Inverse folding.
């Protein structure tokens, strides 16, 4: 005998339910002058640390949780310090936040401090809310996310919208409802450390390379999965970015290729490009030693810098359980290419490699 499904409680945040309009179109933000708030921050981060009751690093190379800090109470100087710290640590976790309850305009105002907000090309936004809000809604009432991942492993590290001429920097993800029990975590990895883990000679070969980023595959999946209900607000978008970039705040170098949007290396034959990109994607996917895993509860807000991290969902909770969140995605600077290292003695300057006899 088949049991009838358990009754489903109504969503706790109905104003943030997803809205799909197949006829909707949006324009790209385009090029803009960008001033990085992290570059004008107090390096002691006094506004952040005086509010924090506890600061906990989640892993050596990525992720820090700040307890006691309310994002809605930070002034401009505090938000500047947030931009600096997230550039340094990759992602920051804030719990028990009032952020979910302050309304669209306040939420948008805070996120806009970090840059103009991106409007997604196919993911939903609230019906009566600003289009910049990306709604993540997985539930028995809406299995669209589940269906999009039904044919492949949901662990796919990526940068949201890396194909933009000026891709995202500090990004906000606010959890509204979380599946019962455990599951639905996000894994973040440091692309700074991913770059540093490569040998100096190999790193030098990557510098100067350019790669094509495109929405072509993502748009094709949207059309395949949803047919006449597909949402394609923009035509296929394409940009060319450096394979290795420099963060303007920390001056650290980071890998900037991802399996969701990076299609090929400029100037390489297809077989050569596929071979190199697969190595770099696998290197990032296997990087448990430079990643952290964030568990959510309602009221958790994660802020991460997409110039120095990639992230992946887990989708490990039971199908039909509700997971409801929203994302705000400020755009940042055009990717800054790293300069080709000319010093072949770089290996001798890295203590760990010298210690292990790798030079």
């Amino acid at each position: 005998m088949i049991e009838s499904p358990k009754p489903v409680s109504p969503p706790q945040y109905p104003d943030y339910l997803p809205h799909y309009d197949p006829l909707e179109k949006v324009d790209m933000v385009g090029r803009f002058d960008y001033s990085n708030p992290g570059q004008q921050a107090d390096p002691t981060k006094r506004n952040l640390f005086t509010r924090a009751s506890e600061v906990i690093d989640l892993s050596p190379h990525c992720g820090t949780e700040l307890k006691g800090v309310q994002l809605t109470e930070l002034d401009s100087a505090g938000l500047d310090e947030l931009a600096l710290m997230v550039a340094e640590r990759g992602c920051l976790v804030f719990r028990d936040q009032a952020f979910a309850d302050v309304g669209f305009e306040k939420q948008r105002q805070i996120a806009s401090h970090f840059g103009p907000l991106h409007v997604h090309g196919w993911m939903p936004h609230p019906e009566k809310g600003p289009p910049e809000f990306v709604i993540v809604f997985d539930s028995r009432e809406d299995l669209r996310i589940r269906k999009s991942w039904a044919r492949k492993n949901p662990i796919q590290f990526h940068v949201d919208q890396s194909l933009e001429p000026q891709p995202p920097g500090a990004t906000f993800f606010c959890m509204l409802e979380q599946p019962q029990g455990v599951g639905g975590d996000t894994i973040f990895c440091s692309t700074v450390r991913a770059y540093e883990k490569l040998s100096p000679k190999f790193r030098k070969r990557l510098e100067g390379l350019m790669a094509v980023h495109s929405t072509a595959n993502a748009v094709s999946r949207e059309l395949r999965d949803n047919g006449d209900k597909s949402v394609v607000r923009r035509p296929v978008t394409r940009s060319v970015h450096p394979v290795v970039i420099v963060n303007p705040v920390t001056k650290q170098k980071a890998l900037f290729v991802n399996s969701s949007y990076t299609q090929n290396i400029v100037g390489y034959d297809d077989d050569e490009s596929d071979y190199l990109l697969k190595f770099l994607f696998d290197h990032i996917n296997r990087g448990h030693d430079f990643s952290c895993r964030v568990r959510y509860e309602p009221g958790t807000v994660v802020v991460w810098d997409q110039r120095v991290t990639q992230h992946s969902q887990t989708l490990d909770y039971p199908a039909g359980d509700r997971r409801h969140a929203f994302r705000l995605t400020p755009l940042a600077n055009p990717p800054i290419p790293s300069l080709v290292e000319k010093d072949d003695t770089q290996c001798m300057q890295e203590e760990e490699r010298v210690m292990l006899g790798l030079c």
